[in-house]
Amino acid sequence: MAAGEALQFALSGITVGSVYAVVALGFTIVFNATGVVNFAQGEFVMLAGLLAVWLVALHIPLWAAAVGAVLIVAGVAAAIHALTVRPIERRAGHFTMIMVTLGVAIMLQVIAQLLFGTEAQALPSFTGDGAIRILTATITVQALWILGGAAVLMAGLYLFFSRTRAGQAMLATAENREAAGLVGIDTRRVSLYAYVLGCGLGALAGVLVTPMTAAVYTQGLVFTLKGFAAAALGGFGSPVGAVIGGLALGLLEAFSAGFVSSGYQDLIALVALIAILMFRPGGIVGTRTLG
Amino acid sequence: MGRARLVDARLAAIGAGTAAPLIFPFVVHDRFVLNIAVFVALYTIVAAGLVLLFGYARQMSFGHAGFYGIGAYVSALIARDLHVSAWLGIPAGAAAATLAGYVVGRPILRLRGLSLAMATFAFGVIANVVFTQLAVTGGANGLPGIPVPRIGPVAFDTPGAFYWLAAPIAAATMVVSWNIARSHVGRALRALGNSETAARAGGIDAAAYKSAVFTYSAGVAGLAGALYAHYLTFVSENSFSIDVSILMVVMIAVGGMQSLWGAPLGALFLAIVPEYLRQLGGSYAMLLYGLLLTVVFMYLPGGVVEAAGALAERMGRWRRRFSN
Amino acid sequence: MRRLWQCLACFVVLAIALAYATGGSSLGAAATGAPFKIGVILGVTGATGNLGQHELDGARLAAAAINATGGVDGHPLEIVFEDDAGVPDNAVNAFNHITGDPSVLAIFGSTLGTNTDAILPLAQRIGISVLAPNSTYDITHHGNPWVFRIAVPANIEVEALSALLKERKLTRIAILNSTDAYGSQGADLIAKEKGLTIVAHESFPLTASDVTVQLTKIRGANPQALILWGSAPLVGVALRNAAQLGMTMPAFSGLAADNPGNIKAAAGADTLSHWLVEGVLDAAHPLPRQQQGFAAIKGRYGYDPDVFAAVGWDVMFVLARAVAKAGPQPTRQGVQAAMTTISNFQGLAGVYTWTNAYRDGTGISSLIWLEVQGSTFARAL
Fold first, then answer.
1. Which residues pair with C226 in a beta bridge?
2. Buried (b) or exposed (e) across B3-32, using 16+ Cβ within 10 A?
3. Is the peptide bond before A124 cis (omega within 30 degrees of 0)?
4. Nearest-CB residue to B111 (from A111, A270, A278)
5. In the prediction, which pLDDT does B98 show?
6. Within a domain: residue A15?
7. How far is A97 from chain B (nearest CA, A)?
């Protein structure tokens, strides 16, 4: 029985963790290329979920609504980049950037409340509400979509960063902005693309997770916190770290709720995060430290 | 001539800044305004610690609502459940927060920059989970019936009366922070804020100074929290959420972190502007608040003090140009 | 230099926006005499926005209805509203601001029980009645003569649950509650009920997006009934997760779960068919005392009346009665005294009685059990 329970805990930990992983990936990509710690990241998750619900209510097919929601959020992200990142990206430090993105997060939450109301909204599962049995445990088909989506994204990002010029330019800018500028990379454009890509990933997470948990205008900060924690846990600045951090956070929450106490699940995950930061400053992957 | 005027203006500002809090409770009797004044005093206490931490030592914390809460709960429980005077509860609350500040700060301050921001953030959430989960804190339902501080027949149970408790404590905290800032400690904090490596090379025990300023800021946050508990006579975890930690940071960032003047100015901002917007009502006011923060941080990253300084300088230059 | 101009320009825009926002907020009342003012402090933005807006809607509509028929002895009721956004310090500010006007006769608020707790000591100090729409058990148990609960208290919710469970011989139960004030208080009270055996007790923070882990542990304890104590949308998420785990035992929830957000979040899960929720009204089948109010709410706002809109409506009618009873020149003291004599008042969300000793307003007779029929709740028993 205990083994069966443990398998169930692992499956739900991985499901929730892959959502965190996608949010953390977005965080990491934005941070790497722009130096912005985006406290509005979770708001894009929330916004995409609510947009998808709204589009479905307009009798748009689910797949088109999902794509449309991600595209609209990417457009919003481009506008936000132009208005709040571009004017200050050369002179502002981490702290100023955090505070500016906090202001943006407040505005996005209010706008979502004004546009979509305060009720929790649900999105249908992509391919039905079925569940699959694995030994003694079950996993929903939607969770498989989330896992699969996360896996495809990671593969896609790997190819993007290793095979395309745009990806290479982003990596180079992340590594050394000045030098990237000197070798002819348009770092401003890279900053915009990375910001839109990162926020678009947040939106994708929102579309994937909304059939699992209903979307509501207040949930942005939660995703921001979890995504930030996942990115720090895995190793800030590393896409692989973001994925590993997300999965680790999800599993940690599930196992501490399962074996210790469900009331303390957030606490245990965060104590672990502090411990990792202290004793393994580069995160689990340990590529580089935050300075 | 211009410089002399600037000094005059500064003296006038200091004079007004000292006289206004003393005179105004005799002029104003409105409970609403006095209540805001109490909150200005409480926020000033918190900010007087945070300015040293953020502005002098350049260490970020996004979890100080945790210390604010520790001070509040410890003081409230001592006065309410042990039936000891609030006059013992309040220092005990501040002491507990100081201790917590040391225990948390000493190890955590090895982290820098964003890692430190993340770890303090995590501490703030952890503290909130503990407040919510413990039975002794009343869980999520909070603690009602916290005693009001009294001296003989005088009870500090109205905003007007409590002001005379909170404002002197705020002033005293400012004086202590001022002395710290002007002492060798303040200079050491500035030095390690500018460059920790250089400060270490200059023989400054960076870890000890960082830990000391963090502990102090936690202690005064706890003091403010303890006063808050006895002012409201009710506390719940809602008052010590991560949003409150963020508001504290907004407060000193708007006020300005490079000078202790930023503390009372930030406190004034935080007590008045969101309150004004709240009274406008509805979501649009929140939208304006977000817009205000965004604009302030984009264009006035040094806060109000720095902006006022720059403006004064610019006006001085104009005046000189016109008089020439 | 350019930065300074940019900055100034931004402030000018802000200032204009602020001026505009302040300008258009007052509405004239229709009745003739000097208005009787009622302070309303609710969380219409922030985490409780969903509930607070409906409470405000109900109160405004009721005031309009009262004023359209001559007000209280020819005086219109005027709502002085401020939002507290679910933040206790805001509730205190709003209370001090509103009650600074001595002609405000009573307060309705706040949406969040902990905010009500924060303003009650102030109300006692200055002497003004507070009509509290909260289930929080302790607000009426501090000997504060100025508080009047206008909601079903948590202990009554639990009493009704306990009675139904025993009647159906479902005494081995599991509790899954949210860790917020509502969920944890309910769980504590259920755990104290005699005659019920708690075989598993799990909780979830409001930050959760999945409660499969908690339900897996509960499934292992094999309870006869599942008690889901929380609000929307996480109770719905729990129902969906329970179905996914193949859990077929009946599920029960308290008043806060009576929210269409839960039905949406459960997305047609089988568990919806054996889930019962406590409620105070069935929007599609109003009782005689509910017909007029429900039609008004639906007609004005387009949504099915829920407990929040109904309570908001009831508050204004109750206060209209109390103010009328308090004589031609009502005072705060007079309204308080009149409130303690209101008996058997037929409201939308219950039948209310208050006395000096009994401050909860409504009892177990106002509760009904709801089940899910299609995409809405309907009376079950």
1. C174, C251
2. eeeeeeeeeeeeeeeeeebeeebeeeeebb
3. no
4. A278
5. 98
6. yes
7. 8
Rounded Cα–Cα distance for residues A174 and C106 (Å): 60
Q: For residue range B171-181, what is the model confidence (pLDDT) as tens digits?
A: 999 999 999 99
Asked if the Cβ–Cβ distance from B119 to A92 is below 8 Å, we say no
* Domain extents in chain B: 2-323
Give the span between the Cα atoms of A258 and A9, in whole angstroms: 7
Contact C272, C290 (CB under 8 A): no
- Integer Cα distance of B30 and B41 in angstroms: 17
Beta-carbon contacts of residue B282 (< 8 Å; ≥ 6 apart):
C44, C45, C83
Nearest Cα residue to A283 out of A237, A246, A249, A232 = A232
User: Given a cut of 80, is residue C5 above it in pLDDT?
Assistant: no
* Between residues C192 and B16, the one the model is more confident about: C192
User: Do B232 and C83 count as a contact with CB atoms less than 8 A apart?
Assistant: no
- Residue B2 at interface with chain C, using a CB cutoff of 8 Å: no
Domain annotation for chain C: domains and CATH numbers = 31-152+288-363 (3.40.50.2300), 155-279 (3.40.50.2300)
Q: How many residues does chain B have?
A: 324
Look at residue A265 and tell me if it is in a domain. no
- Could you give the CA distance from residue B220 to residue B50 in angstroms, rounded to a whole number? 9
Higher-confidence position of B16 and C52: C52
Residues with Cβ within 8 Å of C140's Cβ and at least 6 positions away in sequence, in order, are C147, C149, C153, C359, C360
DSSP B174-208: HHHHHHHHHSHHHHHHHHHHH-HHHHHHTT--HHH
Cross-chain residue pair C82–B281, CB shorter than 8 Å: yes
**Among the listed residues B240, B221, B229, the one whose alpha carbon sits nearest the alpha carbon of residue B74:** B229
Q: Chain B: residue nearest A268 by CA?
A: B126
Please give the class, per CATH, of domain B2-323. mainly alpha
Which of the other chains make 3 or more beta carbon contacts under 8 angstroms with chain C?
A, B
Q: Kindly state whether A117 is in contact with chain B, defined as any CB-CB distance less than 8 angstroms.
A: no
The DSSP secondary structure of A162-174, one letter per residue, reads HH-HHHHHHHHHH
Pairing of strands C345-346, C351-352: antiparallel
The verdict on residue A234 lying in a domain is no
**Residue A126 has what pLDDT?**
87
A110 part of contact set with chain B, CB < 8 Å: yes
Question: Which residues on B lie below 8 Å from A94 (Cβ)?
Answer: 113-114, 117
Q: Are C97 and C126 in contact (CB under 8 A)?
A: no
Cα B5 to its chain centre, rounded Å, is: 31
Taking an 8 Å cut-off on Cβ atoms, the answer to whether C50 and A110 are in contact is: no
DSSP symbol at C355: -
- Predicted pLDDT of residue C1: 44
Q: Which of C4, C99, C114 sits opposite B141 (nearest CB)?
A: C114
What is the least distance, in Å, from the CA of A109 to any CA of chain C?
Answer: 9
- Residue keyed to tokens 């208290």: C153
Residue C20 reports pLDDT greater than 50: no
Task: Give the nearest partner residue to B113 out of A114, A270, A290, using CB atoms.
Answer: A290
ipTM computed for the complex? 0.89
Beta carbon pairs, A and B, within 8 Å: 117
User: What's the gap in Å between the CA of C11 and the closest CA on chain A?
Assistant: 16
A9 touches C216 (CB < 8 A): yes
Better-scored residue on pLDDT, A289 or A226: A226
Domain extent for A15: 2-218
Give me the DSSP letters along C179-207: SSHHHHHHHHHHHH-TT-EEEEEEEE-TT
Q: CB count, 10 Å around CB of A61? A: 11
Is 60 exceeded by the pLDDT of residue C21? no
Q: Given this model, what pLDDT does residue C178 score?
A: 94
Q: Do B35 and C92 touch (CB under 8 A)?
A: yes
